[in-house]
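Figure caption, in words: inputs first, then the predicted bound structure.
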Amino acid sequence: MKIYSYYAELYSYKEYIRSLIKNEGINVNLEDIFTSFDKSILSREHIHKYTYTQMDEIRFSIMRLFIYYFSKSVQEHSFKQEDYIHFFKFIKKQKTKSPTTIITTNWDTLIEEYCERNKIKYDYGFKIPYTNMHDNACESDIILLKIHGSANWLRCLHCGAFLVFKKGEAAKSLFEDGKNETCTVCGQGESFNAPSLQPEIITPTMLKSFANCLYLNIWSAASKALREATEVIFIGYSFPIADFDFRYMLQKSISTKARIDVVLHENDNPEQTESKNLQSLFPEKRYRDAFPKNTLRFFYNGFSDYFSCYSS
Ligand SMILES: [Zn+2]
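Bound structure (zinc ion present):
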């Protein structure tokens, strides 16, 4: 397949994705899929000797499709899921002294939407005011650090402005029919038949080559929050070996005095097997190895149960 026909085909998948989103109900880890995609693209680059520009174009298109997907799936979420409701009750209780910091590798904007519906103020923790969003960390209940970027963040390729979109507007600005994407800062739209807004999301495989100021800031804010934390709660994170950079930051930053709660699913419970060898493959072993001096507690009944029982 010629690379450019592949690129064109990606755009023609637009309608297909649109229909998939409509019939949504699929529960997959899209970040994993994206990472595999990313890796396969990178390896094909060596095998078939595609140029960097061509590879970049494909990655760019796939990213745009994902932004579209995330934006749309948030719009169609019911916002009544018990898990999230218990979690936000917990956050509301915490509001007393200092804001709770949430560090997430997810790209979707569900947390933001729940915050808006629950009147919880959140802040992305950007250090310099170079966005179209007025952040004020002192007034916020939550500092939301999205260390792999977010589906509603786009960068203008003309003026370099970093744009934060509200509710599904990122998708609209990218793919809705009859609309040209335009930068709200410089007002410039498509040029040279190429899109002008670039999604600001990254995958773990891309992280190494990323010396972007935005990410350096978010990662250092995450590291600082972890250093100061007396209580760290991991939710649904299996501490995978492959997340080298994130694991390194967690190990380096979390104080040995901090209490660590790990909230996982019953399938992650090592007690389901009696074999010591098999047990060592479960997340619990990786956590214990990484934080040998900390007080660790493990909860295997999901995060709804944890936040309704253990957080009061
Ligand atoms: Zn611009």
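The longest strand covers residues 149-156.
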